[in-house]
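Hi there, hope your week has been kind to you so far. Do you reckon you could talk me through the fold, stretch by stretch? I've dropped the whole record in just underneath, so have a look:
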Amino acid sequence: MNPSIVGWAHTPFGRSEGTLEDLIATVTHGAIADAGITAADVDAVWVGHFNSGLVNDGFPASLTLQADQGLRWKPATRVENACASGSAALYSAAQAIRAGDAKIALVVGAEKMTSRSTAEVGAALGGAAYQREEAGKTFPQIFAMYAAAYFEAFGDHSGDLAQIAAKNHRNGVKNPLAHMRKDVGFDFCNTISDKNPIVADPLRVTDCSLISDGAAALILVADDVAADFDRAVTFRSMAHVQDILPMSQRNLLAFEGPARAFATAFQGAGISVKDLDFAEVHDCFTIAELLCYEAMGLAETGKGSNVIAAGTPFPDGDLPINLSGGLKSKGHPVGATGVSMHVMAAMQLTGNAGEFQKEGAELGCVFNMGGSGVANYCSVLERRG
């Protein structure tokens, strides 16, 4: 029994004057209203939230109950799996629905990040690295290790990373929910300058996702309930693959956890990558999107540049990737990201994506990643009926 998304809500990502509680309340109200249900209809709540010292609200699951009195006494659980905390919450809700423990679930992803300095955010996110070997490294430095290994093995691909950054910024211009709606252009992304310095060699500022506040929510329902809704997006498959944490014990060129997640999801859906109409993938850094091209089967290892040269991931290409602007332009409020990505896919599949709509989109993929390719969630979604 495959669960379906029947309603959603999404704050604009960026700098918010509101608190974490405000963000959670906004999308809780919005998703319930969008689905056309009442809070009393919800059987249980799951909240994706990384935190790691970013805010003092360390008990966010209960903040959802304050959004509507109809949620009081409902079971509510906070789920954490680094940058994939939103997907972890969604998958937990789906498991409860499949088990028959819930018919209607509310899933919220939220993070408040901009109230901390860049250094403080970097230190907090660094907590998702393997502390016995990688303590003190920021995530730009972590993913710079991927980029450095890739460049050493296959040559300098800075231009390809700049193409990815420029593409996602162009896409983000069309998304009113995106944090940075500005087409900065390939030349700017491909040039080291005062405004685009090296953050962690070889990664530049434009290779890194944004520090954002934001929240997203969705209503997930059981198969026998989905028929009661005019609009539903069904999970054709869901795959969660967890890899070991130490980078020293992994092949940095293979992106093994993401590759296994993609392969498992595609097998479960009975498809190949060529069947997809679009994908939202976890571009926390541009090197991550390049590696995803290879992990999802668009190219062999070391040949990701061929995907860009062929125009495949661009809006008019065979497989548009990150039409929403991705984490690069839309923003990356960590706990919200996985839920946001699924909302973006649902918008595409129901024809509600506005200016960034892919015409005729029928089958989509979401890949959300926690840590350095450690927590890997891949969903294949289609419109019900």
